[in-house]
Amino acid sequence: MSGIKGFLSNDIGIDLGTANTLVYVKDSGVVMSEPSVVAVYNNSKKVVAVGEKAKKMLGKTPGNITAIRPMKVGVIADFEITEIMLRYFIEKASKQFSFIAPRVVVAVPSGITEVERRAVQESAIHAGARSVCLKEEPLMAAIGVGLPIEEPNASMIVDIGGGTTEVAVISLSNVVCSRSVRIGGDEFDNCIIQYMKRAYNLIIGERTAEDIKINIGSAFPLEKELTWEVKGRDAVSGLPKTLYVSSQEIREALSDAFKAITDVIHEVLEKISPQLSADLVDRGIVLAGGGALIRNLNLRITASTLLPCFVADDPLRAVVNGTGVVLQNYDFWTKENS
User: Fold this and answer.
1) What count of other Cβ atoms lies within 10 Å of the Cβ of residue 142?
2) Are 145 and 311 in contact (CB under 8 A)?
3) The whole model's pTM is what?
4) By CB distance 3.0 to 4.6 Å, which of 249, 276, 331, 337 could disulfide with 154?
5) Which three-class secondary structure state does DSSP give residue 311?
6) Hey, what CATH topology would domain 185-253 get?
7) Is 36 in a helix, a strand, or coil?
8) In the chain, where are the structural domains located?
């Protein structure tokens, strides 16, 4: 019976991120990557838009509409809106003639509480899932980038998402040691917002900060430093204002956030056995998640840890690709490794 159900339904893997939600459909690959944003009417809570359309409304909505990011620092901050968002993604990803509700694998931060885990499970069930399997993000990221996690040797993954950074050492298909710090892409944006206000009395929005981060953000000196035009509102006059900032300035603005990430990497390295530490001298550290795309972050981590550090080939899809591997052998992962 389970085989018939599997044929008639879509099994779905979801990387439910603070910034973006990615959806993997078994045998089809990644079918969706959209911002984790929902726009609703304030009075009725009726949905106006989800995903990319809703993100474009951030900071620009009229008084009767609010664009909400229901995930904060990797966990659900608004259960009702998260359920709406999950239903949207599950329904959109399902086959047109799917008669059976899908089994769903959801990647979650390693540091979430049991209450938060139950909240994610219940939201997915209410959104239309037949069953829900939760797996830790660092394990999914390691699987997704192709690390040989089944071997009796250490593999180290640093997954820098929108709300959290997950650091884990994995051996024999299990997490040996992991730590999570609530710093990620959102905190990078906030650091830039605060710097612009402090240094230039310029007030900018989240999307402007994200543009600055993407275009000139760096963690280690660049061969050729960059500049970027920034538009915002003068905090003193209240009038629109344009100025230019350099990559050196933004690197300094992000310095504390980068230090927090290297500190948690050190914490994990100090906890593992000498034998596992020896493995990492050769294997090094692999970076995944959107934050891995910050220029020269791997060089900063290498300078701090003296270990080689590499950016995964497809860091943005690392976690969701890992859920896809789990979907291929769902029964094994839910029974043996739950």
Assistant:
1) 28
2) no
3) 0.87
4) 276
5) strand
6) Actin; Chain A, domain 4 (3.90.640)
7) coil
8) 2-139+318-336, 146-183+262-312, 185-253
Find all residues with CB under 8 Å of 278, minimum gap 6, and list them. none
Per-residue model confidence as pLDDT tens digits over 58-110: 777 777 888 888 888 777 788 888 888 888 888 888 764 455 788 999 998 87
Half-sphere exposure of 147 (CA within 13 A, CB side): 37
Radius of gyration (Cα) for the chain, nearest Å?
21
Whether 2-139+318-336 and 185-253 share one fold: the answer is no
* Residue 175: strand, helix, or coil: strand
Whether the CB-CB separation of 49 and 33 falls below 8 Å is answered with no
Selection from 132, 159, 18, 25 nearest residue 89 by Cα: 25
The 3 state secondary structure assigned to 119-134 is HHHHHHHHCCCCEEEE
Q: How far apart are CA 25 and CA 276, in angstroms?
A: 35
- Tokens 């939600």 — which residue? 21
Say which residues have a Cβ less than 8 Å from residue 159's Cβ, sequence separation at least 6: 137, 138, 141, 165, 166, 167, 168, 288, 289, 318, 319
Q: 262 phi and psi, to 5 degrees? A: -65, -30
CA distances from 274 to 241, 271, 278, 281, 309 (A): 55, 9, 6, 11, 19
Q: What is the pLDDT of residues 9-57, one digit of tens each?
A: 579 999 988 889 999 998 889 999 999 999 988 887 788 899 888 888 8
> Per mean pLDDT, which range of 24-33, 151-160, 225-234 is the poorest?
24-33
- For 172, the 3-state DSSP assignment is coil
Is the CB of residue 103 less than 8 Å from the CB of residue 11? yes
